[in-house]
Design brief:
The chain is α+β, with helices and mostly antiparallel strands and 122 residues long. It has one domain. Helices cover 22% and strands 51% of the residues. The protein has two helices and three strands, in the order βαββα. It has a three-stranded antiparallel beta sheet. The longest helix is centred in the N-terminal third of the chain and has 19 residues, at 21-39. The radius of gyration is 29 Å and the shape is elongated. The N and C termini lie far apart (58 Å). The chain crosses the membrane at residues 78-98. This is Cytoplasmic protein. Keywords: Membrane, Transmembrane, Transmembrane helix. Pfam families: DUF4312.
């Protein structure tokens, strides 16, 4: 048997938003797997982030009030855009050849005595 898995490196740009810094980074990192699955014809075994470079970090704040006067509070949201270098261990499904075997239908009726029953009908 030959070894079919290979490791390659790729740079992805991901972004995320959240009410805390941790939520923003977690939302960005969850996009890594989605982008890799959408882009390739391979079965991914492992994704390892090797280097993370922040491209854009934004902190947005505003004050909200209940009925224009009461219960003032400041709301903060964070948005991050990151360039992430990942090492991907995957199996290239396009390079594999599958053996083509024709199997009987699982919903076919098994009537072994059909010929004998038809002979008696005539």
């Amino acid at each position: 048997m030959t070894v079919v898995n290979e490791t390659k490196r790729q740079v992805l740009t991901v972004s995320g938003k959240g009410e805390t810094k941790q939520q923003a980074f977690a939302a960005a990192f969850s996009d890594i797997q989605k982008q890799l699955i959408d882009n390739g014809d391979e079965a991914i075994l492992r994704i390892v982030p090797e280097k993370v470079e922040p491209l854009k970090l934004i902190k947005s704040s505003y004050t909200e009030k209940f009925l224009f006067f009461f219960f003032k509070r400041t709301r903060t949201t964070y948005a991050v855009t990151l360039a992430v270098t990942v090492a991907i261990t995957a199996i290239d499904l396009g390079a594999l050849t599958f053996e083509d075997v024709t199997a009987p239908s699982p919903d076919a009726l098994s009537l072994p005595n059909l010929k004998n029953m038809l002979k008696d009908v005539k």
